[in-house]
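Quick one, T. Sequence first:
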Amino acid sequence: MITARALPDLPEIRPGDDLGALLAGVARDSGLADDDVLVVSHKIVSKAEGCIVDLATVTPGVEAQVLAHRHGKDPRVVQVVLDQSSEVVRAEHGVIITRTHHGFVCANGGVDSSNAADADTVITLPKDADASARRLRTALRRGAGAAPAVVVADSFGRAWRHGQVDVAIGVAGLRPLADWRGREDRQGRELRATWIATADQVAAAADLARVGKDSGEPAVLVGGLGAHVTLHDGHGVRALLRDRHEDLFT
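Structure tokens:
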């Protein structure tokens, strides 16, 4: 049986906070086990790591000003988006899709103002969410006596579909993909395309366990996935990203 429950009593996270110690403190009495998966919102990781930009310090360049004028956006925010991105993939109808320096294709380079402490600041993605996940796993091992897999999650849109779904942007100790290609279905037919994005599914399931995006529940413990949890941290989220020559949408 798969279970998902939000961890209570996590305080507002601020730059410089020891997020690993704080998570260990709230997880210690939750029955945390090595075969669990702890899913954390990237917002608390970014806040703890200081991935926050004060817009008063941003001077927008020409490209940012042009994009902002065309799409009705704050040119300072657009400049932060460009700074976080390796390229603008597409910009239409007030939406700017970019490829981040991590290789993620997403709206606004992952730059977001929701749940920012100050109205004139924006939050960016962690510089290396895989490394963040590894550090959190180590901190949990030391502070809570168990080393669950850790997934850092963010909300992404999907091609051809409305709405957003939480996906993994950082992974430690979890096989991000379950490859069923080459196996057989119940009728004995070979499976040729079944490649399950386990880390993304865990991230999405965890999001359902929260009361809402405004609930103050940024950490969710998911149980029942021990078959996908590994002793080693693994290679992270890179396995989930398509090579550019395989990406039909960008």
